[in-house]
Amino acid sequence: MFIISPWLLTAFVVFAASAFLGFAFRWQGQVRYWALAAGGLSGLLGTQLAMWPLAYCTFELERMWLDRFLGCLIVLVCTAFFLWISHWVISRLSVGEGLLPKAETYAGVFRSPLAPLLTALCLLPTLIILSIFHYYPLFQTFRLGTRLVRLGAPKTKFVCLDNYTSLFLDPNYWYSLGLTFVIALGVVTVAMSLGLLIAQMVNLPLRGANIYRALLIWPVAISPVVAGVLFQLLLNPVTGVVNHLLENSLGVRIPWLGHAGFATLSIVLTAAWNQMGFNILFFIAGLKNISPELLEAASIDGANAFQGFFRITLPLLSPFTFFLIVTNTIYAFFQTFGVIDILTRGGPVNATVSAMYRVYVVGVLGKDLGKAGAQSLVLLLIVVGITILQFRGSQERVSYGV
What we know:
- This protein has helices spanning 6-24, 31-51, 65-94, 114-144, 162-168, 171-202, 209-217, 224-235, 241-249, 260-288, 292-300, 305-316, 318-335, 337-343, 355-365, 369-393, and strands at 147-149, 156-158.
- Helix 1 runs antiparallel to helix 2 (31-51), helix 6 (171-202) runs parallel beside helix 10 and helix 6 (171-202) crosses helix 13.
- It folds into two domains: 6-111, no CATH class; 168-393, Orthogonal Bundle (MetI-like fold), CATH 1.10.3720.10.
- It has 402 residues and is mainly alpha-helical.
- It contains 16 helices and two strands.
- The longest helix has 32 residues, at 171-202.
- The protein has a two-stranded antiparallel sheet with strand order 1-2.
- The termini are far apart.
């Protein structure tokens, strides 16, 4: 028995999507009828594709409010995706046919109805590859998260969104997410700040600067696992080089890998060092593109070194900074797994189990592939959301010209 009838839900979404797209084109005459039809089709596709792998299970009577909320959210996201595609297609196909006002035209629109078809045909090989190796595995991961699957067991059981809803009620998972954000913030801040500082120094006209640059960039070729092994030798509480130097000079020994706070700091420092060469490489490339005449003119006008850096150099580095923020964030969320596995293995007492490492603990060690698939998909959606927010928030701050 359903609290909400599938047919009633589909009809409501179809009507709402059709009205939304029709309202978006309410001043364009004939295009409005195209929009009404496209909106209805978008609502139908969004509802059916969203609920097809779930069989409307989120609206069953025994489900709690969180299941129904997630079901409505999935339908909304799928419908919005098809509405965006429909709006994009109608906006471009109707320009040049006298259906949209000339004031609405802009550079980059298709002037012929055959142009988007030819473009899609050229993109077809890429779309096929992406569908096989990215989109289909993504759908299978979502499907895996709707089942009770044990590693090595041939039988599976459909459990609707229980693997997803259980994450919201698990305090350990929220702790892992919070720890992941702390590690990401630390890695991005440390790796980019030190990377920019070192790039600024080696960009000076020094003798042998090319040798310094090559040596500083080398760590980018080291995998996170190797970086973890190196820092394990350095930070070992008993035989580590760092504690040996601290004890001989200051008389203290720090439990780098035996204390939750110091273990997290060790992970941040290791990951930041591993990523720093990548940041230095791009910052050096950006500094080479800045004309020295700009800094000389600012110096003549009375600007000191700090004013020249913060008002000229840093704004002109904004495209590189934005790119590195995105790549460092993705690295911190996903690729710190190797560092954690070598340095702490989630210890002490699960204090350094990040969201990515938790997928390994639940899926491989715990042999619960269903929950591991749900966690991996949620983590992917979080990173995608952060990336979109970074793109949206940096549009006005990133300058690609002088």
